[in-house]
Design brief:
Number of helices: 5
Structural class: alpha/beta
Strand content: 15-25%
Distance between the termini: 23 Å
Order of helices and strands: EEHHEEEHEHEH
Strand order of the largest sheet: 4-3-1-6-7
Radius of gyration: 14 Å
Number of strands: 7
Shape: globular
Length: 141
């Protein structure tokens, strides 16, 4: 049976001091996605515009960087690096990746995941932020 791996977007709203990735981001959507991931995935990781791929315990500084300001080449390179790091933790043949986050990031990650051989799903594709929050609330045990 394939492992379920979450790949979650980080958030704009952060603590004002360094912290582990799982603790740095404090937006309601991020917190709900983490709660869901803990209940439903065998493992999960994060991605951010500045840091790229992040493990839960990776210590980072607060920052203000958006992929919206990247050039097309920078977006492609960013996505390639995120997937390369994911490959250091997970084998494509052993898992399905569940990609959480907005299209502005996913449009670059999805082709790179496919190129690397990962099967992936986007559980909240097409959902507004409000509907994502509602969906996460409806999934709670």
């Amino acid at each position: 049976m394939k492992r379920k791996i979450g790949l979650l977007a980080t958030a704009r709203k952060k603590l004002n001091h360094p912290a582990a990735a799982i603790d740095l981001y404090i937006s309601p959507l991020f917190l709900k996605s983490v709660h869901f991931a803990k209940q439903n995935y065998d493992a999960f990781y994060f991605y951010s515009a500045k840091e790229g791929f992040l493990t839960q315990d990776q210590w980072i500084e607060p920052y203000n960087v958006s992929i919206k300001n990247f050039s097309p080449k920078e977006k492609h390179d960013w996505a390639r690096k995120v997937v390369e790091e994911l490959l250091n933790h997970e084998k494509p043949e052993d898992c399905t990746v569940y990609l959480h986050g907005g299209w502005v990031y996913r449009e670059h990650l999805q082709p790179e995941l496919a190129k690397a051989g990962f099967q992936f799903e986007v559980p909240l594709e097409g959902y507004s932020i409000g509907n994502q929050l509602k969906w996460y609330d409806e999934q709670k045990d």
